[in-house]
Design goal:
The complex is a heterodimer of chains A (448) and B (277).
Chain A lengths: L1 H21 L22 E7 L7 H14 L3 E7 L5 H10 L6 E5 L3 H6 L7 H5 L9 H9 L9 E5 L2 E5 L1 H6 L8 H11 L17 H13 L16 H11 L15 H9 L5 E5 L3 H7 L6 E3 L10 E3 L3 E6 L6 H12 L1 H11 L6 H4 L2 H5 L1 H10 L5 E3 L8 H17 L5 H25 L1
Helix pairs in contact in A: 9-10, 18-19
Chain B lengths: L2 H33 L3 H4 L14 H9 L2 H32 L5 H10 L9 H10 L6 H25 L3 H9 L4 H12 L1 H17 L2 H5 L9 H7 L8 H35 L1
Classes of the chains: A alpha/beta (448), B mainly alpha (277).
Chain lengths: 448, 277
C-alpha cells in the first residue's frame, strides 16, 4: 500500500514538474525610457505583438504582413498574440497592473488616455519626428491622438480610420420608388415607407444592446450639428434640446418601424437583421462591409453617408481611429518602432485596409485604384473630404469615458426603449455622468 | 390499456417528454446544421432547415486555421490534470471533514462555501501578479493551480456528503482486519463513493472545459490558448464567422457529450448520495 501511495505522490510531483516546463516562462521585463534598444548589433530579437481584434477574418492578413516584415528584417522576429476583441481591454488592464506587456500592441484611440495615465505607453515622438513618411499620415488623426492625452505626446500611430454611415437596401428603395435619404426628414420618412409588416420587413433597426451608445452619440451630433462636447461653462451638450428632439423622433420608430427585439440588439443581431432581409436600413460603419458582402449581392445594398446636420454640414466624431503603440516595458523600442512604421507604411496600410474594408491614414494608400472604386469607401471620402465637414471630440481623455458609455448609456437607452425612463431623464443622466467625469479628470490634472 | 388511459399517458408523459426533448435538442441540431452549411447559406433567406449542400470546410477552418487542433489538446491536458488533482484532494478533504471532529469545523465548512462567492474577475490582477512573480504566465500549470483552487472547496463539501453516507462500521471492520487509515480510504471508502468521485470529476471537467476568463488572462502565448478562447476568436468586432463558430462548438461539445454519456449512471447515483449525505 505504501508503495502505491509513493507512486501516486511521485507521479503528482513529476506531472507538476513536467507541466512547469511546458510553457515558456515570460521574460522579466525591464522598464526603459525609450532611449534605445538593449540589443547588441546583429543579435536576433523577438518582439511580441498583441492584436486587440483577432479572428479568422483578420489574423491571416496580419500573418502575411508579419511574414513580409520578417523577410525584410532578418534580425527581428515578431510573435503574434491575437486577442478576442471583447476581452482585449480587460487583458491589457491586467497586463498593465502586472507590468507584463507586449512590445507592440493594437490600441484603440479611446484607450489612449487611460493607458497613458497609468504610464503604460512609450511616447513615439522621437521616432515619428525622424520618420520620412510622417507628413503623409493623416494630420488630423495624428493631432487628435496628441490632443487626447495629458502630456500631448504621440502614443499611437493610426493605420486605419473608420466612419459611421447608413447601410440600406438599394434594391428595395428602388422598387418602392423612394430616394435614399439626403435630409433627416427624408431619413425618417423613408423608414416609414419601407416598413411592410405583411412582408416581415422593417424600415430600420436600432442597436439597443451593447455598443448602442457609440452609434447613438454619432447620430445625435450628426443631426444637431453641435461640435462642442462641452460648452464654455463645462456643461455637456448631450442633453441639448436638439438632441432631445432627435431622440424622440428616433426612438419613436421603435416597435412601429423597427423590430421589437431591437432593445437587445448587439452588433451581430443588428447586422443579421439587415443581411437576412428583415430590415431595410441600419446604422453602422464602413467596417461591416465584409459582413454584408457575404450575404447580399452588390446591387442589393449600398453605403450612405448620414444626412447633413440641421446646420447644413456633415458632423463627424473625431478619434475614430485605430493604431499601434509601443509599451513602456519593451526592451526593444527601436525594433518595435521599425515594426510599427512598417505597418503604418503605404503598402501595408493599403493591403490591410483593403482586406478589412476601412480607410487608410496614409496619403499614398488613399490614392490607389482599389480605394477609388469601392462605393462604401467613396461615400466615406465624400464626407471626410468635404471642406465644410466639422468634427466633434468626445471626452475620451477621461479614463472612465468608455465605462460610462457601457454602464450608464447602454442600459439607459434600454430603459427608454422599454418605457421605464423618458428621453429627457436619459439624456440628463448621460450628460451628468460626462460632466462629473470631466470635472474629476480636471481636478486630477490640476493637482499634478 | 383503454383508449382513455393511453390518451392520458400521451398528454401527461409522452408529450411533455417530447417537448422537453425538442427544446433541449434544437440548439444542438441548429449548431450542427450551421456547421455543415456554406458561409453564404447560413444567413440566407428563406432559412434552410436542412442544408441544401453539405460542407465540412467550417470544421477544417476551425481545426486548422483558427488553431483548434492545438487548443483542443491544451484544454484536454489542463482539464485532465485539474480533474486528477481535484478528485484526490477533494476526497481527502471530504474524508477529513466527514470522519474527524476538530475545532472550528463548522466555520471551516462555511469558509469553503464562502470562497464560491468571490467574483472571478476581482481575482484576475492579483493572480496575474502572483503567477508572473512565479514565472508561470503562459504556463498551463498556472491554470491547473487556479482551477484546482477554485474547484476544491465545493467538491470537498460534495465529497464530505458522499463519504458521510458510507457506514463507519465498514471502516472499523477493515481496521479490525488490519488495514491502516490510508488502506481504508483506498480499499473501502473510494469504491463505496465511486459515483461521487465520477460526479466530482465530471463537474470539474465541464467547468474547466468551458472556462474562458482565467484561460485568457493568464496566457500570453497563442500556442497555450484553450478552446473557449478559440471560440471567442470567431466573434470579431465587425465579423462573426458563424460557420466556423458552430463547427468549433461541435468540436468542443464532443468530449463533454461523451463524458456525460459514460458517466450518466454514476451521476444519477452520485447526486442521490450527495443529497442523502
Amino acid at each position: 500500500m505504501s508503495k502505491k501511495v509513493h507512486i501516486i505522490l511521485t507521479s503528482t510531483i513529476a506531472t507538476s514538474l513536467m507541466l512547469a516546463g511546458c510553457g515558456n516562462t515570460t521574460d522579466q521585463t525591464v522598464i526603459t525610457d525609450g532611449a534605445g534598444s538593449q540589443t547588441k548589433p546583429g543579435e536576433k530579437v523577438t518582439i511580441v505583438f498583441w492584436d486587440e481584434n483577432a479572428g479568422p477574418q483578420r489574423t491571416p492578413f496580419y500573418e502575411e504582413l508579419i511574414k513580409q516584415f520578417e523577410e525584410a528584417n532578418l534580425t527581428i522576429d515578431v510573435e503574434y498574440v491575437g486577442m478576442p476583441n471583447k476581452s482585449a481591454k480587460q487583458k491589457y488592464d491586467a497586463a498593465i497592473a502586472a507590468e507584463d506587456l507586449p512590445d507592440v500592441g493594437g490600441v484603440q484611440t479611446t484607450w489612449l488616455a487611460d493607458f497613458t495615465i497609468r504610464g503604460a505607453l512609450l511616447p513615439m515622438d522621437p521616432y515619428f519626428d525622424q520618420w520620412s513618411e510622417k507628413d503623409k499620415l493623416n494630420k488630423q488623426a495624428i493631432q487628435s491622438n496628441r490632443d487626447v492625452v495629458q502630456d500631448k505626446k504621440l502614443y499611437q500611430i493610426p493605420n486605419t480610420t473608420n466612419l459611421d454611415n447608413l447601410w440600406y437596401r438599394a434594391d428595395w428603395y428602388k422598387e418602392a420608388g423612394v430616394t435614399p435619404p439626403v435630409t433627416w426628414d427624408d431619413f425618417f420618412a423613408g423608414i416609414e415607407k419601407m416598413t411592410d409588416k405583411s412582408k416581415n420587413r422593417y424600415g430600420f433597426s436600432i442597436r439597443g444592446g451593447k455598443g448602442g451608445s457609440f452609434q447613438l452619440q454619432r447620430l445625435m451630433y450628426a443631426y444637431s450639428g453641435i461640435t462642442d462636447y462641452f460648452d464654455a461653462s463645462g456643461k455637456s451638450t448631450i442633453n441639448d434640446p436638439k438632441h432631445v428632439e432627435f431622440m424622440k423622433k428616433y426612438l419613436g420608430l421603435y416597435k412601429t418601424y423597427t423590430p421589437e427585439s431591437d432593445i437587445t440588439n448587439g452588433y451581430k443581431e443588428m447586422v443579421a437583421g439587415f443581411d437576412t432581409g428583415a430590415v431595410a436600413m441600419i446604422q453602422h460603419n464602413i467596417g461591416s462591409y465584409g459582413e454584408h458582402s457575404k450575404s447580399l449581392k452588390p446591387e442589393q445594398y449600398a453605403a450612405l453617408a448620414f444626412p447633413k446636420s440641421l446646420n447644413g454640414n456633415y458632423v463627424v466624431e473625431g478619434f475614430n481611429t485605430n493604431g499601434y503603440s509601443i509599451f513602456k516595458t519593451t526592451k526593444h523600442p527601436d525594433e518595435a518602432w521599425k515594426f510599427i512604421s512598417f505597418l503604418a507604411s503605404a503598402p501595408s496600410q493599403s493591403y490591410w485596409n483593403k482586406q478589412i474594408g476601412q480607410l487608410p491614414t496614409h496619403e499614398d494608400a488613399i490614392n490607389e485604384d482599389w480605394f477609388k472604386n469601392a462605393q462604401h469607401i467613396q461615400e466615406a471620402v465624400k464626407v471626410l473630404n468635404d471642406p465644410n465637414t466639422l468634427y466633434y471630440y468626445p471626452s475620451v481623455y477621461t479614463p472612465d469615458y468608455r465605462s460610462i458609455l457601457d454602464q450608464v448609456v447602454d442600459p439607459g437607452l434600454q430603459a427608454v426603449m422599454s418605457g421605464k425612463n423618458t428621453v429627457e431623464e436619459f439624456l440628463n443622466e448621460w450628460a451628468a455622468a460626462m460632466e462629473k467625469s470631466k470635472k474629476q479628470y480636471e481636478q486630477h490634472i490640476n493637482k499634478k | 390499456m383503454s383508449w382513455n388511459r393511453k390518451l392520458d399517458r400521451f398528454f401527461v408523459l409522452y408529450l411533455p417528454l417530447l417537448l422537453t426533448m425538442v427544446f433541449t435538442l434544437f440548439p444542438f441540431y441548429w449548431t450542427i446544421n450551421t456547421a455543415l452549411k456554406h458561409e453564404g447559406d447560413i444567413v440566407k433567406t428563406p432559412t434552410e432547415y436542412i442544408p441544401s449542400s453539405i460542407t465540412f470546410d467550417n470544421f477544417w477552418v476551425a481545426w486548422n486555421n483558427v488553431g483548434f487542433s492545438n487548443y483542443f489538446v491544451n484544454s484536454l491536458m489542463i482539464a485532465a490534470c485539474t480533474v486528477f488533482f481535484v478528485v484526490i484532494f477533494a476526497t481527502l478533504v471530504g474524508y477529513a471533514l466527514s470522519r474527524y471532529q476538530f475545532k472550528g469545523k463548522s466555520a471551516f465548512l462555511l469558509l469553503l462555501l464562502c470562497t464560491q462567492f468571490v467574483p472571478a474577475a476581482m481575482l484576475i490582477i492579483p493572480l496575474f501578479i502572483i503567477f508572473k512573480s512565479l514565472g508561470l504566465i503562459s504556463n498551463p500549470l498556472s491554470l491547473i493551480i487556479t482551477y484546482t483552487t477554485f474547484q476544491l472547496p465545493f467538491n470537498s463539501v460534495l465529497m464530505n456528503g458522499f463519504i458521510s453516507g458510507v457506514p463507519k462500521q465498514l471502516e472499523e471492520a477493515a481496521m479490525v482486519d488490519g488495514c491502516n487509515r490510508l488502506q481504508v480510504i483506498f480499499y473501502i471508502v473510494i469504491p463505496a463513493v465511486l459515483p461521487g468521485l465520477v460526479a466530482t470529476g465530471v463537474f470539474t471537467f465541464i467547468h474547466v472545459w468551458n472556462e474562458f476568463l482565467f484561460a485568457f488572462m493568464l496566457t500570453n502565448q497563442e500556442e497555450n490558448f484553450t478552446l473557449p478562447i478559440g471560440l471567442s476568436y470567431m466573434m470579431g468586432e465587425f465579423n462573426v464567422n458563424y460557420g466556423a463558430l458552430a463547427a468549433g462548438s461541435v468540436i468542443a461539445l464532443v468530449p463533454a457529450i461523451l463524458m456525460f454519456a459514460y458517466a450518466q449512471r454514476y451521476l444519477v447515483n452520485g447526486l442521490g448520495g450527495a443529497v442523502k449525505g
